[in-house]
């Protein structure tokens, strides 16, 4: 099964603010999510965010975090931010 990656307006703005190398790295990892957004594996550090409604997941890409949720065959990226900030 293949998932479609959808970016929120906020995530799109946050990605645009990053330098090109970092943005490319995150976009490549998002491509990996389209294969399986639930299973952590080498190069794809995924964690469930317990206590979030609806259930959200976090993808770690170096010093950045990508928060997303899964709806049927869509992976909706909510935001991209530098580590150290609380998850919402």
Q: Can you give a write-up of this model?
A:
The chain contains 2 helices and 5 strands, in the order βααββββ. It is of the alpha+beta class. It has a single domain (4-82), classed as YaeB-like fold (2-Layer Sandwich). A 5-stranded mixed β-sheet has the order 1-5-4-3-2.
Summarize the structure.
With 88 residues, the protein is of the alpha+beta class.
Low-confidence stretches: none
Task: Please give the largest β-sheet.
Answer: 5 strands, mixed
CATH superfamily: RelE-like
- Please state the CA-atom Rg, rounded to the nearest Å: 12 Å
CATH C-level category: Alpha Beta
- Summed up, the helix count is 2
Strand content: 35-45%
**Helix/strand structural class:** alpha+beta
Give me the side-by-side strand order of the main sheet: 1-5-4-3-2
The CATH architecture designation is 2-Layer Sandwich
Domain module tally = 1
Could you spell the SSE succession in H and E letters? EHHEEEE
The chain-level mean pLDDT equals: 92
Helix content: 25-40%
How widely separated are the two ends?
Answer: 29 Å
Overall strand count = 5
Assign an overall shape.
globular
* CATH-defined fold name: YaeB-like fold
Descriptive labels:
single chain, 88 residues, alpha+beta, YaeB-like fold, five-stranded mixed β-sheet, 2 helices
Task: Itemize the secondary structure elements and their pairings.
Elements lengths: L3 E4 L1 H9 L2 H14 L11 E5 L6 E6 L2 E8 L2 E9 L6
Parallel strand pairs: 1-5
Antiparallel strand pairs: 2-3, 3-4, 4-5
């Amino acid at each position: 099964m293949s998932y479609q990656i959808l970016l929120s307006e906020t995530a799109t703005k946050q990605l645009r603010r990053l330098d090109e190398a970092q943005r490319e790295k995150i976009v490549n990892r998002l491509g990996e999510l389209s294969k399986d957004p639930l299973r952590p594996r080498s190069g794809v550090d995924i964690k469930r965010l317990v206590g979030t409604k609806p259930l959200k997941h976090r993808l770690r890409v170096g010093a950045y975090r990508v928060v997303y949720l899964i709806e049927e065959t869509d992976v909706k990226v909510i935001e991209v931010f530098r580590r150290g900030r609380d998850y919402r």
